Amino acid sequence: MKNQTQQRVLVIDDEADLRELLVITLGRMKVNAVAVGTVKEAKQALSDGNFNLCLTDMNLPDGDGLEIVRHINQHFPDLPVAVITAYGNMEIATAALKDGAFDFLAKPVSLDRLRQLIDDGIGIGEQTASPMSSSELTGSSAAMKTLREKIEKLARSQAPVYISGESGSGKERVARLIHGLGARRERPFVPVNCGAIPSELMESEFFGHRKGSFTGAFEDRKGLFREADGGTLFLDEVADLPLHMQVKLLRAIQEKSVRPVGDSREHSVNIRILSATHKELPTEVAEGRFRQDLFYRINVIQAAVPSLRERPEDIPNLISLLIGKLCEQWQMPEPNISAAAQDALQRYAFPGNVRELENILERALTLADGSAIDIQHLQLPDNSASASHGRTSNGEPRRPDDLPLEDYLQDIEREEILSALEVTHWNRTAAAKRLGMTFRSLRYRLQKLSLDPGDEKGEE
Fold this sequence. Notes:
Layout: E1 8-12, H1 16-28, E2 32-36, H2 39-48, E3 53-57, E4 59-60, E5 63-64, H3 65-75, E6 81-85, H4 90-99, E7 103-106, H5 111-125, H6 142-154, E8 161-164, H7 171-180, E9 189-193, H8 202-207, H9 224-227, E10 232-236, H10 243-255, E11 257-258, E12 267-268, E13 272-277, H11 281-286, H12 292-298, E14 301-304, H13 315-330, H14 339-347, H15 353-368, H16 375-378, H17 384-387, H18 405-423, H19 428-435, H20 439-448
């Protein structure tokens, strides 16, 4: 527990016995608790005194906890508030989190869980300025301004966040910022690519195992949940989890505990869940590939990361930033970029988004060999300008009238291969498996499309 001397918590509950229990329990934690039983009394107490945390029940004689949450969010935005809900009432808890509550507590109240929540809440209230800033996301477009504002708001919460966006758009960067700006920033940030873990090893990777629990278990392993204890677990490409693992993940998130393979006891964990995928999760749910209950659990709040096509005005600043980073890394002077090259990049569709832009610039720097970067050094696909408009009004692919079928199909093939490479972090063996082709076939296509990045991890 943190040093909580002089900390003041407002407790709102209409049950006198529970109010008394909470006041006594908080007193033993050296927290000064003020207890009231109605919405009216709560609003008066909030006006009269300074509090470090508010804990409110949902059912009150003259209103409900959501009214308290909204009132605090509007009039006392720096005050963390958590709600007490009936066991299993996730709909109410989710509504409270969306309205601004940082966490919830289910009845019957567990004292360990209460201590954890008090710690987290007071930690949010005492949060000092982070060395990180949402301004680390490059771009002055309206879409990026909206995203930065959302990140700063989400950093003050403990609610699960689902980060949507195309491959290469920067979803993990957004997750790291939410963690780095929040109260958990001194604790671990543990990212995991759910699509890169073999199905038979998933339970052990997530929950750990005991030595000797299966063939190859030569030592105890904590697992990702316990490695992230106190911090944040980022589930990248969460849509790639098989259904049997989705069930186990849901239970671990609900119970806030895990049982390692071969162990007979549960281990409590205190983590925040952030998740992301380039797929449309509602579609995955509708088609039976992703559990609806898990979707509701991880999608309490959604943060959408815009594609590069949606913010072309940010491309010049991104080019400057990435060229500078690469030249500093390679200890070389920054070359000029011709107007033709700038224009081509501005009009390109970028199926791989910012990560593809970085790969293009890295290749261009190599080909330019210290001279100015011109359009031929970019090696962009033909008809890239029209490719950015090659979709119908509802987002379906459409072949532009002036684009030959063979070129159009080659562009689609390029997009699919780049998407698979981005998802697997350019592991070509994993990308080939994802595309349903052999490694040699993928290598041939990479060479044909001038996408071969050379010796990469995953070579056979």
